[in-house]
Design goal:
The protein is of the alpha+beta class. About 20% of the residues lie in helices and about 35% in strands.
């Protein structure tokens, strides 16, 4: 039985180190259709049409692209303290006490690090935007982040015990973790490394996912997997490789579930021979995509 998290309300944003800030910013604004909400020496912060202050922050850093942290909004200040205590009890690292956050979204928060070096920044009281109208062909918010792990049980246990996520489905290659009514906000790819697999952006509708595929193709970023409709989550998808190997997904129609949803197991999620999605029209992920899904690691802390 799955349940919504008593600590985390939703996935807010992902912070990335990139070797060329101008190139990354041009992609995420001009091609990916996010809008700059704050820019400065500390980085560039990009928003969608939803209420979150930003969905991606880009920070200049030499070397390969890397993940600084994944930001999760919590329900309350008390939830921050609860998570900090659970992290310590679970043997995880907590990077300092609850404190005011320095980024333009503000609020208070703290960062917890799981046993494999993934940094989850927990945020409360950050600035949000008024809910605006959805805009065709523009992302609304983050749908999910998929993180590779060489040890799914340990990664899953961390989210369950420290952040009160629950498993919504387990396939042969992925564990889908839920914190709210979205089928998953974090998922773990069952692999032999701990890279960022991809970041998924929720689009207003299927039409926007498809038009986005054409727009990215025109800009020199062909669809690396898709179009298709996933099994777990039931969401439509197109995957692309952005600058510096950052894998991004346009998605829509993410399945909404509640506490009555029963988690499926690998035997429940098997495709007929030759299929990799519900529609049966998508080719398998490209080799380039598979390589990129292993390339962007978490920055050491």
């Amino acid at each position: 039985m799955t349940h919504a998290s008593s600590i985390v309300s939703h996935l807010r944003s992902v912070a990335l180190n990139v070797p060329d800030l101008a190139v990354a910013q041009a992609f995420f604004t001009q091609v990916w259709h996010l809008d700059a909400v704050a820019q400065g020496p500390a980085g560039t912060y990009l928003r969608g049409t939803g209420t979150d202050h930003h969905l991606i922050s880009l920070h200049a850093h030499p070397g390969p692209a890397s993940v600084r942290h994944v930001s999760l909004r919590v329900h309350s200040a008390q939830a921050l303290e609860k998570a900090a205590q659970a992290a310590v009890q679970g043997g995880a690292r907590v990077l300092g006490p609850v404190a005011a956050l320095a980024d333009p979204a503000g609020g208070v928060g703290l960062s917890v690090v799981d046993g494999h070096g993934r940094v989850y920044q927990l945020v409360h009281g950050d600035t949000t935007h008024p809910q605006g109208a959805e805009v065709a062909d523009k992302p609304i918010r983050l749908a999910h982040a998929v993180l590779n792990t060489h040890d799914v049980p340990a990664s899953q246990t961390f989210l369950e015990q420290v952040l009160d996520f629950s498993l919504s489905d387990r396939t042969r290659i992925m564990a889908f973790m839920r914190c709210n009514s979205d089928h998953h906000s974090i998922a773990f790819g069952d692999t032999d490394n701990d890279a960022l697999n991809h970041i998924a952006f929720l689009m207003p509708d299927l039409e926007s996912v498809m038009r986005g595929g054409g727009r990215l193709k025109d800009a020199g970023h062909p669809i690396e997997w898709g179009p298709g409709r996933h099994g777990p989550g039931n969401n439509a998808f197109n995957y692309f490789i952005g600058p510096f190997g950052i894998v991004v997904e346009y998605t829509a129609e993410v399945q909404q579930i509640d506490d009555s949803y029963t988690a499926g197991q690998p035997d429940d999620w098997k495709w007929p021979t030759g299929r990799v999605d519900q529609w049966g029209i998508s080719k398998p992920p490209s080799d380039a995509l598979k390589q990129a899904q292993r390339a962007v690691l978490f920055a050491p802390v």
